[in-house]
Write a structure and sequence with these properties.
Length: 282
C-alpha cells in the first residue's frame, strides 16, 4: 500500500482514546476500527448510543494482516466480530459494511431498558423515509465529500464545481429534515444522524485544505437558502455536541494530518482510488 497511509498516528487520541480504553477488555463482541475512519465512527456511535458492551480493537487497515483478512476479505474497517453460540463452544462471525453493522446492532441490542430506543422510527413509512435519506448520505453526500477533498488542479472539474456539488447535496438533505429539529427526524437522534455525523465532524478540513473553504454561507448571507442553512446550523450543532459523537473523536490535529493525503490526492486508500477513477466507493 506504500508508506503513504501507514504513516498515520497509530492510536486514538483525545476523547476517543478514553472511550477506547474503557472498551479495551476482552469481549466476545469486537469492533475492529481505525480512529481516523468515518465509517468506523458510524459503528462506534451506534455502540455508544445503545450502550452496548464491546471490545474496541485498533488496527491499521492499510497494513492488511492475514488475521484481519480472514475476518473481512475486503480488508476494510469497520469489521465487527459477532459472538455466535456454536453449541458448547462460543465462536465469532464477522460482519462488515458500516451501515449493515449499525443496522445489525440496532436490531440485536433492542432491550429498551438497557439499550434505549431504536435508532429507527417505529412506523414503517417513517422508517422507509429515514432509509431514503440514509441512502442520500451514502450515495450522494459522501462521494461528493471525497471529490471535493481530493480536488487538485489536474482534475477535469473545478474546485467551485466540487464545492457546489457537496453544498447542493447538503441542502437537499437538510430541506427534508423535521423543521422543529434539532435532529433530522425531530427530537430523537436517529440512524440518519449517525450516518452523516462522522463527515460532519470532518467538514472543517475543507477550511484547512481547500481555497475558499467549505463555503456554507454565514448567517444572514444565505439569500434564498437562508432557511436551509439556518436549519443546517441547528442540526450540525446538535449532532456535533452529541455525547456519542464527541466520545468517538480523536484530536483535531490528527485528522488534519490524516487527511493531508486526501487533500493532495496522493492516498492509495480504496475510497480515494475509487473517487479518482469515478467508481462507486468500496
Ligand atoms: N463501505 C465501507 C467502507 C469502509 C472503508 O472504506 N474503510 C476504510 C478506512 S476509512 C478502509 O478500511 N480502508 C482500507 C483500504 O482502503 O485499503 C463501509 O461502509 O464500512
Amino acid at each position: 500500500m506504500g508508506s503513504v497511509d501507514t504513516s498515520l498516528h497509530a492510536h486514538t487520541s483525545g476523547r476517543a482514546a478514553v472511550y477506547a480504553e474503557k472498551h479495551s477488555v476482552t469481549h466476545p463482541l469486537i469492533l475492529y476500527g481505525g480512529w481516523f475512519c468515518p465509517f468506523v465512527q458510524r459503528a462506534w456511535i451506534t455502540l455508544h448510543e445503545k450502550n452496548i458492551d464491546h471490545q474496541y480493537f485498533e488496527i491499521n487497515p492499510y497494513k492488511k494482516e492475514a488475521e484481519f483478512l480472514a475476518l473481512n476479505p475486503r480488508g476494510l474497517v469497520p469489521t465487527l466480530a459477532v459472538p455466535v453460540d456454536k453449541g458448547s463452544r462460543p465462536d465469532q462471525k464477522p460482519l462488515y459494511e458500516s451501515s449493515v453493522i449499525c443496522e445489525y446492532l440496532d436490531e440485536v441490542y433492542a432491550d429498551e431498558s438497557s439499550n434505549g430506543p431504536s435508532l429507527y422510527p417505529v412506523d414503517a413509512y417513517e422508517k422507509a423515509r429515514a432509509r431514503i435519506w440514509i441512502d442520500h448520505v451514502s450515495g450522494k453526500i459522501i462521494p461528493a465529500f471525497y471529490r471535493f477533498m481530493q480536488h487538485t488542479d489536474a482534475k477535469a472539474y473545478t474546485l467551485d464545481e466540487a464545492r457546489a456539488e457537496l453544498l447542493g447535496h447538503l441542502k437537499t438533505f437538510i430541506r427534508e429534515a423535521d423543521p422543529k429539529g434539532p435532529f433530522f427526524l425531530g427530537s430523537q437522534f436517529s440512524m440518519v444522524d449517525v450516518m452523516l455525523a462522522p463527515w460532519l465532524c470532518r467538514l472543517f478540513l475543507f477550511d484547512v485544505y481547500k481555497q475558499g473553504g467549505l463555503g456554507v454561507p454565514a448567517r444572514g448571507e444565505g439569500g434564498e437558502d437562508e432557511n436551509a442553512w439556518n436549519r443546517w446550523r441547528v442540526w450540525a450543532d446538535a449532532v456535533e455536541n452529541r455525547e456519542s459523537v464527541l466520545d468517538t473523536l480523536s484530536e483535531r490535529d490528527h485528522y488534519v494530518d490524516a487527511y493531508k493525503r486526501y487533500a493532495e490526492d496522493t492516498t492509495q486508500s480504496g475510497v480515494a482510488k475509487a473517487t479518482r477513477e469515478g467508481r462507486r466507493l468500496p
